[in-house]
Write a structure and sequence with these properties.
This protein has 67 residues and is an alpha+beta fold. Helix content is 22%, strand content 15%. The protein has a two-stranded parallel sheet with strand order 1-2.
Length: 67
């Protein structure tokens, strides 16, 4: 739904926000604050499916996750 994304996105150059539930991504896209639209990228997938170089991220936040 974007709640964690909105908390930190204004401090980042670029954010990749993922969720396996398409309806949550749709809600987050709809609710994206105007000031953050150019720095947040949304993807409907899980962290296991995320295809990104290892060195792409400076920081990762995960909500409601068990490791």
């Amino acid at each position: 739904d974007g709640r964690l994304t909105w908390r930190y996105a204004d401090r980042a150059a670029h954010v990749i926000a993922i969720d396996p539930e398409a309806d949550r991504i749709e809600t987050a896209i709809k609710d994206t604050p105007a000031a953050l639209k150019d720095r947040v990228e949304f993807q409907t997938n899980s962290i296991e499916e995320l295809q990104a170089p290892k060195d792409l991220f400076d920081c990762i936040f995960m909500s409601w996750s068990l490791c």
